Amino acid sequence: MPTTVLIGAQWGDEGKGKITDHLSETADVVVRYQGGNNAGHTIVVGDERFALTLIPSGVLYPQVTPVIGNGCVIDPSVLVDEMAELDSRRIDPGRLQISANAHLIMPYHRKLDAVMERFLGRQQIGTTKRGIGPAYMDKYSRHGIRVQDLFDPKIFREKLEIALKDKNKILTKVYNSLPMDAEPIAEQYLGYADKLRAHVTDTSLLLFEAHQAGKQIIFEGAQGTLLDIDHGTYPFVTSSNPTAGGATTGSGIGPKAIDRVIGVAKAYITRVGTGPFPTELHDEIGARMVELGGEFGTVTGRRRRCGWLDLVALRYATRVNGLTEVAMTKLDILSSFETLKVAVAYDSLGERFEEFPRQQRVLYNCHPVYEELPGWNTDISEVREYGDLPEQAKQYIEYVEKAIGIPVTMIGVGPARDATVMRTA
Ligand code: GDP
Ligand code: IMO
Ligand code: MG
Fold it and tell me: Helix, strand or coil for residue 421?
């Protein structure tokens, strides 16, 4: 039974939730290993639409054990609401397992996220304002409060007092904002302890045992490669490692356990928030992608920036994640375009770049070098067999495969669970 890591190969919102759900039919364990409720994963099953932010997308299958690993940051109010929402829709959240070592997003993290962004003015990152960055800052400065602390009120209160001493100075003196009181926060958070207690465990051990027993495990990345704190378009990134390596540190499983690394990429590309985006379209083609693709964020409702597929970036994602294959989603959205462009290199500051540039200034000045491919002008949303796709659509897929050197094994042709063309390499 293979252990699979599934990651976003672009700037997030590639359709990871849908593909994870699709693959979860035969999975035993599905794990989130980084990020928090900045993620928004939409899954469509029949007439129902689920928007998950923290709970792994495998939860919709009853045999799956969903796991939130140590690398995640958890806003317990969001988690408790998400569990209640699933419960109200007849999905049992009782199987959820949460790492005792995952860090908590505290109310001051959310507040700091908002004021820090305001402070940056035109340089702002466009974060989801969910407190993600400040929670990871505390984790790495070793001032974080972890899930396990919820079960020791004395220690929780002590840690909170220490954190607030520091945070209140920053809030009031740096950001000219109001201070926060410890007691209401302690009361609220300790109130979650009873709701979460039965779910909290040593998830690294759970995964080790599942792997030893030959269970099928899927690691579900949130965000995407180009939002990775190390490998993304820094500083316009998130504060964790969505790339495949994050699956090991964020869950406590060794790299040798991983057999398969799937990169999920849209047939075009989108980005929410600010930062460089070489193939961005500011014209009516971009506007058509937004409209046809319904490109508005699941979490914040923001309009996503859209552009042509960027093969320089996809080759980069293939490399830094060690992808073994790609799942290409939303091919159906391109059905009405006469011709399609794909970026095969960049021209920037008088130089040609075949590889994704490391220099921020180079990236900002990129002019993509495009290849043009014919469109297919046919509705493909009912197609389920690769052989039934129009020739031009197959040509598009095969062009991508050749450019990145790995197979496209799944093709999304609609949001529904079964709207996927499976293709054996
Ligand atoms: P994630 O964050 O990577 O899980 O992606 P999101 O759920 O934020 O955004 C992807 C959107 O595209 C969701 O609304 C999905 O329902 C939808 N989607 C996923 N795959 C396909 C596809 O192949 N075709 C179409 N038309 N929609 C898709
Ligand atoms: P999923 O899992 C798309 C973006 C934000 C912002 C930057 C930093 O649904 O693909 P943060 O709140 O993380 O500090 O914001 O990252 N961002 C995402 N963009 N999809 C996501 O998640 C994202 N999570 C964060 O828009 O630019
Ligand atoms: Mg999303």
Answer: strand
Q: Is the pLDDT of residue 425 over 80?
A: no
Please, which residues have CB less than 5 A from ligand 3, an ion? 13, 40, 298
Could you read off the pLDDT of 92-150 as tens digits, one per residue? 999 999 999 999 999 999 999 999 999 999 899 999 999 999 999 999 999 999 999 99
Range of the domain at 317: 265-422
* Other beta carbons less than 10 A from residue 354's beta carbon: 10
CATH of the domain at 178: 1.10.300.10
Q: Does the CB atom of residue 275 touch ligand 1 within 6 A?
A: no
Q: Is 414 in the pocket of ligand 1 (CB under 6 A)?
A: yes
Cα of 134 to ligand 2 centre, how many Å? Answer: 14
Give the domain CATH number at 269: 3.90.170.10
- Asked if pLDDT for residue 51 goes beyond 70, the answer is yes
Name the band, by pLDDT with cuts 50, 70 and 90, for residue 349.
very high
Domain shared by 347 and 209, yes or no: no
Tokens, residue 123:
């340089």
Q: In angstroms, rounded to a whole number, what is the distance separating the alpha carbons of residues 410 and 27?
A: 17
Q: Exposed (0-12), middle (13-18) or buried (19+): which is 358, by Cβ within 10 Å?
A: exposed
Do 204 and 226 fall into the same domain?
Answer: yes
Same domain, 252 and 398: no
Q: Indicate if 341 and 411 belong to the same structural domain.
A: yes
